[in-house]
């Protein structure tokens, strides 16, 4: 009998909790709707926790001062705060993230489909830039030091890299509880399955073997 | 004196008309706000035309049955309806476009930062696909024939190509009056100025000469 | 036992899945939320399908090139794409429709409470018009041929009719996943129960027997 | 010289002030934006008045306790509060209205394209109803007395009539600063120019002479 | 067995129905979504009732002409219409309220985080005012008599009091289905647990014993 | 002549530029709309700068690592980034701020009518709390150290104070380009003109001389 109850609860979580995720970054119609993360492994979003059970810890998280692991080919790390970590963010339309860079580490070209972003450098020297949309494709970029701020408008491709010899890091504020991220290299050259190499060769005006090299690497 | 008036009107159009463009794809608070396109060459958006002067032609456009010119390296053409052509679209949150393809023509990977899209094939056989966001990067694709419909969610990278021996074409409906377009190749490899090739080499895990080939071609 | 599970699943679908339908045509907070149409006959909206189970077919539909059946008193047919047919449209704020007309067929006065509309004629010659709101009540209308486009602003009464001797058809793009439709004749003269005929006689400044003829016919 | 300045100011008001009207019923990004009604006769919307010049009277209006004139064929009157009367409403997404009824007076079938409505009866006995959208076309109606409340959802056709022997009145709250109103009879049978009577005859399944009677009366 | 079903239904209501509450005051994507109030005592929001079961009573409420009980230290009473009382308001972005005042009764300083408000005096003489945001902190106030209207912009602190010798009352229209209310005195001096009195003393520039008096009273 | 042109430009800026400020924190319909701050001293918001003239510096600001001046009765300082400082934020729906605290300094009870907030402690030890809305009025609070994060939901009263012996500081991310701030003490006890002390005495259940002390101090 209990197995059935658990099964049903799982089904409920599967079909119901998803729905909160489907609501948008809009003004909520209550003070807050803390994510109910009980079923976090099986669902894709969260219903509201009973307000009576909400505690200060639902709005609290520690550890953003800790650098991420940059021992990877990019020499960089990006940690975004999710609703699982900070359930109080549910419905509030904002989140933050931290990026760390080894010397000359790169945060490769990417964009956030659902959020503009303000980055604030907390350590080191960082080149940050974004590219305007077609047909201008202008690159706007700056060299940033500690305390400098740079804005990446929603949906535009941007990147950063550490241009100093020491470590570098920034904190980012993003105007969505779930900004999403599309890594351009992964999307175009590393999708599953891959986009046909002859199609990409024609799209990028290069030989197919150039595309093959990119597809092998991403 | 009249010159000054014209100058002032130009300045007014420069500083004021822009503002309508700044309003968002939301429910307007009037029935319609036909774009006043008198100053179309110098401004980036449009104020409302006097409702008394609005005519049926403001909501009318001909020519969408005509194929675009596909004599270019992509073998494709994309024509989007702008407010200048169809001023009645102002504030209504929707537009359409037409794409044409020579045999094996390609509409290269791109995305629309402000609109989901439904394409409807009107001629030929077209492969259409989009890639989900990080970290999944799944490619979802279909082969489409006349009358087939495919959906590209807002902000995700997508492409199409003609996989038949004749011409091909589709009509697209887009959920914004100004969806915007970011051509991934142009943004990453063809920006002005270019992104440093060593940065891109590290970001895409390839030799710098691979990046150079892409930068020369885009 | 299984009966109880089915009952509970039905109840879950009844109380939960409805909710996705209650979310609005806004920017979603995920890339997509494909409608879970398992319970489509008993519910009025859809939760998100598990992203891992999403396939390209969720974003695909065939058959829009096929004419609808116009053998009815209106001599016209309107087919709107629903979430049941194209579950990938869920949360994306757009849909399309197809209308067909026998010679001199009429799409009677109606409006969409939740969407502006762009129609594109694909066959024949069509008169299209909409009426501005009170107190102007201006009729803006055009004769359209193949490739012509006409815009109906959200919430305004509009109609079309085939003014040629052959068949006619258009494809419509609508700026909502569920635009809704109010057929003016059905709402005013054909509601269940009917509005009192003496009330309508006073409202329309005609004798009650005129209203009776309209009520009998709608 | 002053004449030119006035002309220019008029032009400014014509091209600029309209724009505030084009913003939507959304959360504003300031506390208030009192409508600047200096140019109220020539424009269709209002820019923000200088906050320093804003006074309490901008948020104040008297006279809603006064009955409107019901000496007309409908035996009813509807007074909506406009921004010209109450400029403080600008950007706040709400307005109110007052309707009065002579005995058996009728507020004919109409709808508000941009607002749901709550009516509160302050005098007399009123029948109020609305019709759900196609294909159900259900009429939901109630008889209301003083203090009773009835809700008309956004965009649905509704009506009221006085079903008592004395006067009747209600106050309406509407969820938009400019709800708009489409009077169904005027839109369909009284537009300028009129919709072809043969088209309407086919649309409403009645003889053309029935349509002629309605067109002559509306 | 029935116990389990009831338990499961309770759980469903706990995790699911909440979600409708999490949707925002936006344009819904259906005509209406009447709140399903079956589980009203255990949940914090409502899913949509089956449209087939919706009746006119879902949109109806009586009793707003009745004065509330003002026998309390404030000498005032505020009754807001909730979804439990008027389930048809769900998703429609509007509600109303009634306030009553004994002679010299006070509706203490408060604000609505999610709605602008229009008050209409129906009895007596009322002083109404709101304070603009920092750093101006201007008080805009008026004396209102029957039929007078005053607007309180969203999120600003406002108050009213009866400045006449008889009773007074107003009806308020609010631009949200759930405007929320923060009573400034209760929030600052009467929270559970209380804010440290030394902190408040420093914040308000007064001796701690002044704060103690306020904390004891609120 | 030039004087007139300047006068007219000033008038244009006064009546027009305001309007961009009136648009809401929604998805813009262009990639960005950099604020045109030429007229910053006389206007209350900004039109879009010509995109061709936009430069990287429009999205850049330095100095957020510098502590504000805390030599004041509160022992605290709050610096919010305005559009004048960082014009690229216009239309993007986000901003950041920095607060500094002398030992035991207090950021007094206040709220932001248009934004939720995430604070990240960068130095010292801070007590942060917010109070839920009426009727619960629960205080949720935490002691935060470097790297700790705390969320203040939109529109709820919150405060912070330095509970350590050294300086303290945090960076805040806010989900609006213009969150606004209402300082509760200033609004209630320090408005211009003041709210009647007898009214406040009744509202807060204390003697009028308690109110007088608060009014003198704020």
From TrEMBL, chains A, B, C, D, E, F:
It comes from the Eukaryota. SMART domains: Cupin_1. Belongs to the germin family. The keyword Cell membrane does not apply. It is found in: Secreted, Extracellular space, Apoplast. Pfam families: Cupin_1. Residues 66-212 form the Cupin type-1 domain. Residues 1-22 form the signal peptide. Gene3D superfamilies: Jelly Rolls. Keywords: Apoplast, Disulfide bond, Glycoprotein, Manganese, Metal-binding, Secreted, Signal. This is Germin-like protein. InterPro entries: Cupin_1 (IPR006045), Germin (IPR001929), Germin_Mn-BS (IPR019780), RmlC-like_jellyroll (IPR014710), RmlC_Cupin_sf (IPR011051).
């Amino acid at each position: 009998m209990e197995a059935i109850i658990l099964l049903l609860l799982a089904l409920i979580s599967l079909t119901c909790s998803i729905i909160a995720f489907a609501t948008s970054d809009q003004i909520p119609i209550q003070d807050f709707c803390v994510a109910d993360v009980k079923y976090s492994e099986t669902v894709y979003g969260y219903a509201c926790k009973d307000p009576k059970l909400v505690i200060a810890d639902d709005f609290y998280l520690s550890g953003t001062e800790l650098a991420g692991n940059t021992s990877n080919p990019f020499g960089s790390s990006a940690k975004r705060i999710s609703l699982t970590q900070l359930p109080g963010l549910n419905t509030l339309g904002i989140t933050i993230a931290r990026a760390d860079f080894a010397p000359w580490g790169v945060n490769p070209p990417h964009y956030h489909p659902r959020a503009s972003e303000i980055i604030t450098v907390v350590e080191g020297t960082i080149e940050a830039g974004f590219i305007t949309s077609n047909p201008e494709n202008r690159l706007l970029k700056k060299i940033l030091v500690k305390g400098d701020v740079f804005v990446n408008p929603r949906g535009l491709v941007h990147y950063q890299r550490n241009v100093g010899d020491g470590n570098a890091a920034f904190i980012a504020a993003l105007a969505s509880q779930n900004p999403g991220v599309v890594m351009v290299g992964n999307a175009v050259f590393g999708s599953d399955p891959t986009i046909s190499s002859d199609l990409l060769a024609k799209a990028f005006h290069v030989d197919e073997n150039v595309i093959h090299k990119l597809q092998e690497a991403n």
